[in-house]
Amino acid sequence: MDFSEHKNIFLQIRDWLVDQILIGKLQPGEKIPSVRELAADIEVNRNTVMRSYSLMEEEGIIENKRGIGFFIASDATTQLQRIQKREFFEQELPGIIHKVEVLKLNSQDLAQLLQVIQSNDHENKQ
Q: What Gene3D superfamilies does the record point to (predicted)?
């Protein structure tokens, strides 16, 4: 895992785990690596991983089964999609809209983007 200097490491770990859930590499009900295992694998302090796990537990993404470990919550995918969509609309979309306006992109320019999105949707349904 390559870390960026522009974001806290514990948030980058959380984001990486979220991506793993959203792309289906981690499934609801599945056990995730222990704090110690993940910290050793990605070469960070255990407290940093624990901070990521605590945040994800607060968000309802993972559950701690005492003595057994951390597991992906049964509704994690739905929960994450809701969170990610809200963050996209609040934080990223305004910047995209601004860029569209500044670059004076027209409907033909954006139609090309929509074609890419639609072809991805079609591939994902098969």
A: Winged helix-like DNA-binding domain superfamily/Winged helix DNA-binding domain
What CATH code would you report for 9-75?
A: 1.10.10.10
Ordered by start, the domain boundaries in the chain are: 9-75, 77-125
Q: What is the pLDDT of residue 3?
A: 84
Query: Which pLDDT score is estimated for 123?
Result: 65
Tokens representing 48? 């940093």
Contact 76, 62 (CB under 8 A): yes
| pLDDT given at position 119 | 80
Q: Give the whole-angstrom CA distance, residue 125 versus residue 98.
A: 32
**Phi then psi for 101, rounded to 5 degrees?**
-65, -45
